[in-house]
Structure formats: structure tokens, C-alpha cells
UniProtKB/TrEMBL annotation:
TM spans (from-to): none
Family in the record: Belongs to the PNP/MTAP phosphorylase family.
Keyword annotations: Glycosyltransferase, Transferase
Domain Nucleoside phosphorylase: 34-270
UniProt-recorded name of the protein: purine-nucleoside phosphorylase
Species assigned in the record: freshwater metagenome
GO cellular component, one term: cytoplasm
Single GO molecular function: purine-nucleoside phosphorylase activity
Top-tier EC class: transferase
InterPro entries: Nucleoside_phosphorylase_d (IPR000845), Nucleoside_phosphorylase_sf (IPR035994), Purine_phosphorylase (IPR011268)
Cross-referenced Pfam families: PNP_UDP_1
Amino acid sequence: MNNPLKDSTRNPFDVAAEAAAVIAEKTGVAKHDIALTLGSGWAAAADLIGETIATFDATEVPGFNPPAVAGHSSSIRSIRLPDGRHALVLPRSHWYEGHGIRSVVHGVRTAAAAGVKIMILTNGCGGLNPELKPGTAVLIRDHISLIFKSPIEGANFVDLTDAYSPRLRDIARTVDPSLTEGVYVQFTGPHYETPAEVMMAKAMGGDLVGMSTAVETIAARESKLEVLGLSLMTNLAAGIQKSPLSHAEVLEAGREAEGRISKLLAEIIAKL
Ligand code: 8IG
């Protein structure tokens, strides 16, 4: 693997700038306005928000790794929104893939280098509230990162008050006033939690458990991006749901919800 992010003498922001330059060249779009990472269940949104200008494999862009998981994508897509703004769909690299924290946040940093101001992070996750039905979309209000590893390099004391933009959450709620909000607790994965860990996450004030978004949000705030976080609760977390968790079940719940939540996301993007 010849990923420049693995060279500790390289500055990850320089690699992100190189990635953004390659994206500008491949898309013919000098500056993108919005970026999206589409997690389990959200992929169809890319087809609804506008006209696709270019799609290419992320591995053609410096710093991006091939995908590790069935159901995840590794393409980069540039979409022209009806109002003329440009959206960039970027793949996700998870902490559990083992490529290091720089890879996890390279998409976010590349988005910032491409001119993006609004970062939309979506995911599939487990739910801690038994009242919520699998298939429910939830706005992320705040997070707890149990990764205990900051993506920030150097003494940069980034403020995370309102990390998940209250302004963007308000806009999302004008599209669907019934959207609930929750605190997202990030575990390392790839194993799901034990029932005892799920109880811990709940006692800490969590509503959702996942493996991706908190660390990405930290890097997005470092790069001064405004973040909208949206989770699809695909399953109740281990022990809350009585049956064992399976990736197949997660994918199935995502497929079932995909049309509905992708339409929701497309309607939100039109208002941002
Ligand atoms: I989809 O129950 C999905 N992702 N940590 N726990 C964690 N991540 C998840 C879960 C879950 N479901």
C-alpha cells in the first residue's frame, strides 16, 4: 500500500490539498460547496440531489484506500445541484480498517481543501432507546468518542461546543419536524458492543452507537466545516434487541429505509 498518509513526514493537509486538486481536475469543478459521506442506508441520496458530473474510483485520488466492507462504496462523485451549487460525495474509511486516524479523516480534510463549507456525515447505527423503531433517521446533536484518539495533530485546541451545527439541525427539522435528536457514541468496532457496553453508553447519556462519525466531526470542526450528522438506526443495540446482531440484518434494514431517508436527505440539501 502506497498511501502518502502513511508517511509520517508528510503533512496530511498537504495530501488533502493534492487530493482536492486531482478532484478539481477530474470533475472540472474548481470548488465544491457541500460534501457528503453516505453511510449504510443513505447511498440512494446521491441519485436524488442533482445531476452527476463525474464519478471515479477514490483510489485514483491521493490518500484514499480501497473499501473494506460489503455495502460500502469507494467512489467519489461530483453532483451539480439544481441551484448550481456543487456537491461532492466521498467514501468513508473506518478506524477498524486499520489504515490509521489520518485515513479516517482524509475525506473530511479533502472536502475542506476542495472548498466545501458544509459537511454532511451520515451513518447506520445501533439504537439505545427501545421506543425507536429500526429504520428511524435521527439527527446527531452531540457525540461521545470512545476511540480516545484525536485526529488532530499538534496542539490545536479545537472547540466542540455545537460541533453538530444547530443552524443545520434547524433546517433539517423544517423538512421533517418529527426528526428526533440524539447523542452518538463512537466505539472502535468492528465488533458490535457487548450488552454491558451498551448499558454503559446509555448511562453516559448516549442514544446511538456507531463506528464512524464522531472522529470525522472532530476533524471537520478543526477544518472549520459546518457539520450536519444524520444516523439511520438500523438495529437496536446488543442486549436491547434480544436477538443477535448481524451485518446482513443491518444491510436489510438499510435497504428498507433507503428510499425514504434518501428523499429526506435530498430535501434537506435543497434547503441548505
Ligand atoms: I449499522 O449496533 C450499526 N453500526 N457500534 N453498534 C455499533 N455500530 C453499529 C451498530 C451497532 N449498528
